[in-house]
Design goal:
- The protein is built from five helices and seven strands, in the order βαααβββαβαββ.
- The protein is of the alpha+beta class.
- It has a single domain, classed as Aminopeptidase, CATH 3.40.630.
- The protein has a seven-stranded mixed beta sheet, sandwiched between helices.
- A hairpin with a 2-residue loop joins strand 6 and strand 7.
- The longest helix has 16 residues.
- The protein is globular, with a radius of gyration of 15 Å.
């Protein structure tokens, strides 16, 4: 059984721990360990998540499978990228723990976020995805996203990862 719940301020520690584990599993090999560790130490702390959750524009959800925490997402409504439509949602993060990859939980969490965006009168959804993550690129393409640009994601002052910018119109 799968359940999706909005993350509360009381769950910041759990969010920080889960986010750290999922970023290491999915991107830990994308940069030198020193750079990844510094990035995580700066961007995945409880203080950062507390600040993000205090802003109502940042919407986080947990997904559970058979009572076990399996992943999370973050969306931001009305977050246009440069030169884009108004009323578009940024899918800022969607991560599933590796042990749940074959359970279709990413699809369920993704569809939940799409439905939420549509309910909030959004015209579409955009995101960045690491070009060297073919599993994720295929996932988004299968769900109707089109590559519309590129973006260098700064992991550290000396390392960046090439990303596709992708868009899905509703």
């Amino acid at each position: 059984m799968t359940a999706i719940y909005k993350v509360t301020k009381n769950e910041i520690s759990l969010l920080s721990t889960l986010a750290t584990q999922t970023i290491i599993e999915s991107h830990g090999h994308s940069a030198p360990a020193e750079d990844m560790n510094a990035y995580i130490a700066e961007k995945y702390t409880e203080a950062v998540f507390k600040d993000e959750l205090s802003n109502p524009k940042n919407i986080y959800y947990f997904i559970y499978h058979n009572g076990e925490l399996a992943g999370f997402s973050k969306i931001v409504f009305d977050c246009p990228y440069e030169g884009s439509l108004q009323n578009v949602t940024k899918l800022d993060r969607i991560y599933i723990l590796k042990k749940f990859y074959d359970q279709k939980l990413g699809q369920q969490l993704f569809q939940f976020n799409v439905d939420l965006a549509k309910e909030n009168k959004q015209a579409g959804m955009w995101l960045y995805v690491w070009k060297e993550n073919p599993r994720a690129v295929r996932f988004y393409e299968k769900n109707g996203f089109k590559v519309i640009g590129s973006h260098d994601f700064q992991v550290s002052p000396r390392h960046s990862n090439p990303n596709h910018q992708m868009l899905l119109l509703f």
